[in-house]
Amino acid sequence: MNARQVILDTNVSLSRYPFRRLPLDETPKLVAKLKQHKVTRALAGSFDAMLHHDLGAVNERTARECKEYGGGILAPVGCVDPTQPDWREELRRCHEAYRMTAIRLHPNYHGYTLADSAARELFADAARRKLLVQIPLEMEDERTLHPRLKVAPVDWRPCAELAAVGPTLRLQILNCRLFPAIKAKNVWFDFSMTEGVHGIRRLTDSVGTSQVVFGSHAPFYYWESALLKVTESGLDAAALCETNARRMLGELP
């Protein structure tokens, strides 16, 4: 991998993970790590969105943290729960007030499935606003979750149908340990939880080389592990680290 290669990390999180402290769970420390590795932009959601009921406050805090401590590289990612009565207003605030270009959903923590009509309505509204929709299938391997909070991974199978909601919908699957059989030009995947020898190659074989983008899931995972996966893959580092993500964000044709 070229040492000069810049990186667009599509999967980092701010604030504190609910179940333990992490080495880089303070925003300035996370930003310093990203800058150390020539990350030019990172899409930053919040761990608070998993369990905090007041998502409006979470989104406002995420936007403020990115502005005040993001060093010019953190792009805030909001969260909307379609089971809450004011979700349309919260989606509007994310897009219009905070200038967010993406939202990150947690169906398994918020008590709905991607097959629910509420999810379809949210996807349709996000498509109209041309927002990227990110779905972490899990935030932690369910085998290591706290025994009082065993949360199953998101069922990804409705994604194939949801991807057809509209031509402007862009969907990204985060933190998948398996290789979902979805081949659509508007669905992308990060490799933060892809494991094993040639894991990225196996993922690209499943979903297509152009649909795989860099995602570290930092600070839950050590950031360097994502970089090592790229190096080990032997694939086009520029595509994995930047070009594919910029296409996903609508910045390149």
Rg on CA atoms, Å: 17 Å
pLDDT under 50 segments (min length 5)? none
Tell me the β content.
15-25%
* CATH architecture descriptor: Alpha-Beta Barrel
Tell me the number of structural domains: 1
Give the count of helical stretches: 9
Tell me the helix content: 25-40%
CATH superfamily: Metal-dependent hydrolases
Output the structural class: alpha/beta
How many beta-strand elements?
A: 8
Describe the SSE topology.
Blueprint: E1 7-14, H1 27-36, E2 39-46, H2 55-69, E3 74-76, H3 87-97, E4 102-104, H4 107-110, H5 117-128, E5 132-136, H6 159-162, E6 170-174, E7 187-190, H7 199-207, E8 212-213, H8 223-233, H9 237-248
Parallel strand pairs: 1-2, 2-3, 4-5, 5-6, 6-7, 7-8
Features:
5-stranded parallel sheet, 253 residues, 35% helix, 15% strand, alpha/beta
Structure description:
The chain is of the alpha/beta class and 253 residues long. It is 35% helix and 15% strand. It has a single domain (7-248), classed as Metal-dependent hydrolases (TIM Barrel), CATH 3.20.20. The protein contains nine helices and eight strands. The protein has a five-stranded parallel sheet. The longest helix has 15 residues, at 55-69. The radius of gyration is 17 Å and the shape is globular. The two termini are 24 Å apart.
Summarize the structure.
This protein is of the alpha/beta class. It is globular, with a radius of gyration of 17 Å.
